[in-house]
Every structure is written in C-alpha cells, then in structure tokens.
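Data availability excerpt. The first of two example chains:
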Amino acid sequence: MPENTSSASKGPNPAQVIVGGVIAIVLILGIAALVLFLNLPDANAFNLRVEQLFIENDALTEASEIRLLEILAQSGTAFSDTLSSYRFIIFVLMVFATALLVASLVFVVFLVTLAKRLSQIEKSGIQVSSLVVHRADRIVQINDMEFKLTEAALETLSVLAEARLDDDILSGIEIEAMISGKSQVDCDEASGATRIKRLRDHLGNQMMSELLIKNIARKGYVLAVEPAAIRME
C-alpha cells in the first residue's frame, strides 16, 4: 500500500491572515471613526451662539428678556452635555464593532483551517499506530479507543486485518466467501459490501470508519493501517 501523502496546497499562514485582517479592520474603522467625529458639530457651538446673543443684545434689561437668555444658556449647556455623551456612545460602538469583526475574522480563519485539516485527513487517512483484534472478547483496540463488536463484525475485521498483513485487497465477493465458507461463484459483491457497512456502523464514528476501511475503486476493500501496527490475539 503506497505511503499516504497530503496533496493539500499550502495556503497563507493563518496567523498572518489574522494579523493582516486585524490591521485592515482597525484602519478601516479608525478612518470611519475619524471622519464621523470630524463631522460632528462642536459641543460648544450652541454656547458660543448664546454668548454672542448676550454680547449683541446687552441692551436687554427686562427681567423676561434676561430670563430668556438664561434659558438659552442652560439649553446650550444641556446640548453640550448630550453631544459629549453621544460621542462616548459612538466611541463604545466603534470599539464593539472592531472587537466583533476581529472575532468574526478569527472564527472564519479557524473554520477554514479546520476544513483544510479535515481535507488533509480525508486524503491521507487516519494515523493508526496500533490495531489489536481480541477474538475471544470480540474487542478491537484502535490506538487508545476500544470497540465491542458483534461476531459477524469481528469476522469481517479479522479478514480485512489478515489480508492487510498479506498486503492484499479484498473484493466484496472474496470477503463474503472467506467468512461464509462458500465458493466465490455462490457469493455476490452486495453481501460483502453489507458486511463492510455493518462493520463501519459498529465502529460508530462514520468519518473514522470510512477512512479506516478504504474502498478502492474496481479493486475492493483494505484497511488503511500499516501491517506492523496490526496484532491478532
């Protein structure tokens, strides 16, 4: 069986993508915040206008007129305080938007990296350092995982393991013939394929079982395990 190789093309370093993305996000939002703050009205604009009214209308001496100017002055102070609070709220929202975009970027890069990793695993197969078949207990140990199998599933796995030790690839007909003891003429491919499916079902994890028991087109089934890692007990 040829050695597994990864054909996944090398892409940009995820750390570089994250750093570049963070810099781009900070620059874009920083420029947007600068333009926004520069176009906001001056917090003291209203007070300056009120002050100008006081200066230009110093002849106003009536109590009602003075009271009106005082109200305008108080309104200017309130407007200044409100605009300052708006500036703070906008600043907080910009910081929150930056954090959210950075988190989204990291999440997307993580998903892309994970997808590439899964693609590499799918192409190269899982790395099995030890596969031990315990016939008496109907148990198979794959690395540090242990699976309890039925008699039929254990027989199928045993046949595949022995074939792998001999560097053979078995078709569905050959698997069915070896397990049932019938002649290959009396067996069909579907019966062997059914045994493989049941074995995969017993192993539980669909992805792991699909990668562990490979189906080579027009040839048959083979364990994606190095012969030196297989032990039959």
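And the second chain:
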Amino acid sequence: MALLRRCLAVLLCTVLLAGGTALTLAAVLCLPGRDLLIRGALLCQDPAAAVSLNWPAPVEKPRPGTQTSAEATPAPTPTPEPQTTQPAAAVAEEASPTPEPTVTPLPSTAPQIDNPGAIRAETYGQGSGNGYITLGAGGIHNLTQYSDADLRAAVTTPSLPFDIEVNSSEPQVLILHTHATETYQTWPDLIYDPDFTARTQNTELNMCAVGEKMAEVLNGAGINTLHDTTLHDSPSYTESYDRSYATTQAYLEKYPSIKVVLDVHRDAIEDADGTRVKPLCTVNGEDTAQVMIIAGCDNGSSIRLPNWRLNLRFAAAWEQAMEQRTPGLTRPVMCAYRYYNQDLTTGSLLIEIGGHANTVAEAVRAGQYAAEALAVLLGGHPE
C-alpha cells in the first residue's frame, strides 16, 4: 500500500508539472510584449492564479486577399480631386494690385557695333528744268542724248502699249528679281554695320519679301500675277542678268498671256563720307521708302531696245498713278542707257524700292503702295 501511495504521488506531481509547463508555453505564444514574461513567471509559481487572470484575446491578422470587417479595417480615405496649383510668384502677383503703366523709351534694336556708319533720311523731289519732263503727277529724269521734247512726245499717248485682262485665269504679270539677295536694314536706328554687305538669301528679308507683297496686292485686285523667287545673283553675282533673262523667257514661253514683267530691286545711295542715304516719305503717318522706276533707252549700238518708247510710256503711266494715289512716294522715272532685259515685252520695267539704308518694313510698305497704284492702272480693284 505504501508503495502504491508513493507511485500515485509521483504520478500526480508529474501531471501537475507537465500541466504547468504546457500552460506556460501557451501563455508565451499568446501574450505579447513584457506581459509574456510576467504572466509566464506567475504561471510557474501559482498555476491556479495564473489561470484565473483575464488573458487578452489574440488579434488575428487578415490573410492576403481576404476582406476584414469594418471594425477591424478602417474605411479608406477618399482620394482628393486633382487641383491646379499656381507658383507662389503667380499667386502673389494676382494678389497684388496692378501697377500703373509708366512711359519708358523703347530700347534701340540695333546691336552693339564697333565704328558704326551713319544713315540719314532724305525725301527726294521730282526736279524741274532742263532734263526733267513734268507729268500730270510725278516726272521723268532724262539722262539720255534725246531731247526732253522727244521723251515728252513718247509719253503723251494715254493708252498703255498692251492690254490686260482683269480676273483672267491666265497670268498677266510676272514679278522677279535679278538681284534677289539685295536686302535692307532690320532696325530703325540711323546707324549701319560697315561689315554687312546688305545681301542675304533669307527671302523674308531680301527683295523676295517686297515682291511677295506686290504680287499679293495685284492678285487681290484681280490681276493674275506670278512671283518668281529665284536667287539669280546667288551664289554668283556675275551674269545674274543672263540668268534672269532665261527665267523670263521660260515664263513667256509657258504663259504667253504675260504682258508685264517687273524686275524689283533696291537702290544703294551713299554720300562721299560714307553716310548711307535712305529715300523716305511719310504715308498715313508711317515711314515709307520712296520708289524709282528705271526705263532703259536704246543707244543705237551696245544697247538694243527698239521699243524703248513703249516701255517709257508704261513707266510714265505708272509713275503718274503712284503720285496721284500716294503723293511723295516716287522719285522721278530714270530714263537712261540701261538694258535690264527690257526688250522682252513692252511692259518690262525695273523698279527700285527704297535703298540699302531703308528698313525692311519701309520697303514692303512701299511695295504695297506701288502695287496698289499699278492695279488701278491695269483696271484692277485693290482692296
């Protein structure tokens, strides 16, 4: 019996020890933080007291892909609508009052130039006396050996030496440029760069810009006009008239309807001291380049222009039309021993639009007024 009691006591101690160990391990697995140690020690010392304590319920982490209850998972924060933010400087500018405008002089647009050349503006008159033929408006400067009376007789006939068909589907006028790379000043200041040759291939700054404006006006007035922008003087200035002659011939062969051929140039006027002169007038309150028509004359030998009087008649009619419509726009027609391919039609003329000291804007403006007068002369209706 004694042996049996000892066996039962050993068995009871073993059960109690195993149970305490099991409870301790359970507490270690379930209790977080510092409470694990405290509760575990208490369990070893007094299992009954430890069991009677209120143990915290374990919090189960949601598995990926599963949805938890609203209590366990906070509601997502709604994404705010995108807003356009302004820089701080812009906000400050909006908040501050707009300052009153102040009068400040416009800065010069000319670049810094070492030893710049000077420019002066001059408005050329028509001239009078010997060597000048006065027209109803405008005039002719006679630089030939022919008498003034001879030239006057050549231009008294009121009709043009050709007929123009208004609103025709066939070209009536051709505008081209033997010296297309001739250009102007790009700033209004009365200085120029001596190193600049006053030539450029940029068609927005050279003679093509003037010709484009003239063609635009004529076409708008019902005069079918072609504008050739070939740079006949590039890359070589030599024989540029031969090249423009070939260009004109090609157009006349393709379009025999063409009656007027205008070779649009710009002049180059310079004083003895190097000052460049820009021929200038004022039209509608704006600075505008003056223009000059050149009508060639036969000299009986090297210059063969059998119909030069007809070309001069056209030149005189256009001169009068420009001066009547826009007084002061023209310098007198130059009638001189010049060829300029004017044997190709009786409506072939060269016109100088300003000079190399004028600005591009002044020249384009002059081209517009010259073309408007020509459109009226040819029976068109400019806007």
